[in-house]
Design goal:
By secondary structure, the protein is an all-alpha fold. The chain is built from 5 helices and no strands.
């Protein structure tokens, strides 16, 4: 193995290991949230777990910027995203403890669906903008590889309406504008 491939293998292993540790820590935190609340308030624990999972998804998404190949971070972000919204929607829709009123359930579901729609719109915008990067980079590379043109080579420099500059005078002073 060469040095570059060894470093890449170590980076993949480290990224997977860190991701695994974070997922296990999040699982322990979620179990702790669930056990922290009394039995009649487990719905609130589930809502908290869902919200924290969505926050973890946002954090994992931001960590994508630290890697050239953010496969583990992207997978973790999608997993937390799906888990968080599934827990939120199921908890609000099913009301497992019966502690939420119908109005609270409806408001919670509507707010969660609006947040879900907004985040899906943001995801679509992000992927569309990411897809437009390679064509722009190809254009930039072609522009950098081309030889720069002189300002006098542009078509407007040779147009009949272009101002004509008088030839430079050799050592003579320009005529004065009027006698004194």
């Amino acid at each position: 193995m060469s040095g570059a491939s060894t470093a890449a293998a170590v980076n993949r292993i480290a990224a997977g290991l860190i991701t695994g540790i974070l997922v296990i820590a999040a699982g322990i935190l979620f179990v702790g949230f669930y056990l922290l609340f009394p039995a009649h308030a487990h719905a609130f624990a589930l809502l908290l777990i869902g919200m924290v999972a969505v926050v973890f998804a946002a954090i994992a998404y931001l960590f994508e910027s630290f890697s050239r190949r953010p496969t583990y971070q992207r997978t973790t972000a999608w997993g937390f995203y799906a888990f968080g919204f599934a827990v939120l929607l199921l908890t609000l829709g099913l009301n497992p403890t019966g502690y939420l009123s119908l109005a609270q359930q409806l408001v919670g579901v509507v707010v969660t669906l609006l947040f879900l729609a907004g985040s899906i719109a943001g995801i679509a915008w992000r992927y569309r903008s990411a897809a437009s990067v390679p064509p722009r980079e190809a254009g930039r590379a072609a522009w950098r590889a081309s030889t720069p043109q002189s300002a006098f080579d542009y078509p407007t420099a040779h147009s009949p309406t272009a101002p004509v500059t008088p030839p430079a005078t050799s050592g003579k002073t320009p005529p004065s504008g009027g006698g004194a």
